[in-house]
Design a protein that fits this description.
- Helices cover about 40% and strands about 15% of the residues.
- The chain is an alpha/beta fold.
- Strand 4, helix 4 and strand 5 form a beta-alpha-beta unit.
- Bound molecules: flavin mononucleotide.
């Protein structure tokens, strides 16, 4: 089962990249085939739903073959980064019916709770399956050591287990 992880910010110095790498490793441990799709690599795609460039075709193909999708998104001004929305808007039918797992990221205490809720609204129009479980990386700057390893392995192991269990049950 292929479940790509969309890294939803290209910001220089982004903390969300550490989260995406951690989720990639957890996804693989849970038995999924996965990779990170970085918005930085997809910035030049036009948001016009015409999949013509090689890059857009490659993105379309990846989403088409995906069994589910994970988004790692920081909260910017209580919403999702614009470049993430542009990337999502490139496609439509490719998303239909697929479960969406969202990981919110913030430097504050709420773990991107508002961006998680906003992405769930977008997922309705993309006819995706919203999951009950989500992961909330609050105070993200304190969650990883200098090597990029998550500090509280036990707590995050419990949370990711529930997250991937729900994702598995939703994949048809
Ligand atoms: C443009 C911008 C807007 C932000 N707005 C919020 C916000 O609304 N709520 C919040 O909790 N953090 C906000 N932050 C801080 C992020 O939570 C913080 O940068 C965190 O490290 C996650 O984002 P990153 O992956 O870009 O590092 C904002 C950061 C930026 C750059």
């Amino acid at each position: 089962m292929y479940v790509p992880i969309i890294l939803g910010t290209g910001r220089e110095g982004r903390q969300s990249e550490k989260v995406a790498r951690f989720i990639l490793s957890e996804a693989k441990s849970a038995g999924f085939e996965s990779e990170i799709l970085d918005v930085r690599d997809y910035r030049q795609m036009a948001t016009d739903k015409t999949v013509t460039t090689p890059l857009a075709k490659a993105y379309s193909e990846k989403i088409r073959k995906a069994s589910g999708i994970i988004i790692v998104a920081p909260e910017y001004n209580h919403g999702y980064p614009g470049e993430l929305k542009m990337m999502l808007d490139l496609l439509y039918q490719e998303y239909f019916g697929k479960p969406l797992g969202v990981c919110g990221v913030s430097s504050g205490p709420l773990g991107g709770a508002r961006v998680v809720e906003q992405l769930r609204l977008v997922a309705v129009e993309l006819r995706m399956q919203n999951m009950r479980e989500a992961l909330y990386f609050s105070s993200v700057q304190d969650q990883f050591d200098d090597s990029g390893a998550i500090k509280d392995k036990e707590a995050w192991g419990r949370r990711t287990k529930k997250f991937f269990e729900e994702l598995s049950t939703r994949i048809r």
